[in-house]
């Protein structure tokens, strides 16, 4: 039987890499989107394919570029003939209190996190509609639900992803396309490694489970929503946050 295909934006490191590994381990072929970072792609390919009889396609694309996203979806279809899962994972932060936030810091975060999610989704959904089958999981954040001082741009982008996803869930249900969000809390990645030890300690105190999560714990939740066994959950936000938001 033809393998299923998962396209993961920002799949070269952090949470995206863990998501890619989870799908690879479950026999999905992978389309890994990335922009330039320090990732060694040969090592990454070996890591993802290790022990799995799957194929990977790496596509360097800035997801803020709509035409480039169209090209990315086309290349994925040319290689694999299908896209079963889209994970909108790529994201950035430019944290600053509103009073100090520059207009370009607001625009850039919205452009990558929210418009990028639109670009990737809009260009993949036509293929899912033809298949009459698809799963879209977008990575929001607990701060998109609760807000956070110093992250007005990021929280707005992540809240936007939730509204976007709920709308998609309603529009696409008749085509058997399910759309959901994951809202991670604090997860140990390059994004959070830059925090000082005292900030990390303060964060842990506020989490009922008293520790940050791992990228693998987020990947497990993504797979739960995007894998074959989810046939009846759509338009939801699943918090993966050690109990921070209840
Ligand atoms: P990361 O910085 O390690 O990885 C982000 C990925 O997105 C990288 O592969 C990067 O190359 C890619 N990316 C950035 N801009 C891009 C663009 N314009 N086009 C294509 N790719 C682009 O971050 P991390 O921590 O793995 O975060 C992944 C997602 O999870 C993000 O959406 C983030 O907002 C979200 N998240 C992370 C949390 C954390 O505690 N680490 C908590 C809540 C949400």
Which SSEs are present, and which pair or pack?
Elements: E1 5-8, H1 14-25, E2 29-34, H2 41-49, E3 56-60, H3 66-80, E4 85-88, H4 103-131, E5 134-139, H5 142-146, H6 152-172, E6 177-184, H7 190-193, H8 197-205, H9 215-226, E7 237-240
Parallel strand pairs: 1-2, 1-4, 2-3, 4-5, 5-6, 6-7
Helix pairs in contact: 1-2, 1-9, 3-4, 4-6
The protein binds 1,4-dihydronicotinamide adenine dinucleotide.
1,4-dihydronicotinamide adenine dinucleotide binds near residues 34, 63 and 139.
Description:
By secondary structure, the chain is an alpha/beta fold. It has a single domain (5-240), classed as NAD(P)-binding Rossmann-like Domain (Rossmann fold), CATH 3.40.50.720. 47% of the residues lie in helices and 15% in strands. The chain contains nine helices and seven strands; from the N terminus they run E-H-E-H-E-H-E-H-E-H-H-E-H-H-H-E. The protein has helices at residues 14-25, 41-49, 66-80, 103-131, 142-146, 152-172, 190-193, 197-205, 215-226, and strands spanning 5-8, 29-34, 56-60, 85-88, 134-139, 177-184, 237-240. It has a seven-stranded parallel beta sheet with strand order 3-2-1-4-5-6-7, sandwiched between helices. Strand 2 (29-34), helix 2 and strand 3 (56-60) form a beta-alpha-beta unit. Helix 1 (14-25) packs across helix 9 and helix 4 (103-131) packs parallel to helix 6. The longest helix is centred in the middle third of the chain and has 29 residues, at 103-131. The chain is globular, with a radius of gyration of 17 Å. It starts with a strand and ends in a 6-residue tail after the last strand. The structure holds 1,4-dihydronicotinamide adenine dinucleotide. Residues 9-10, 12-16, 33-35, 37, 62-64, 89-92, 112, 116, 139, 141, 184, 186-187, 189-192 line the site of 1,4-dihydronicotinamide adenine dinucleotide (NAI).
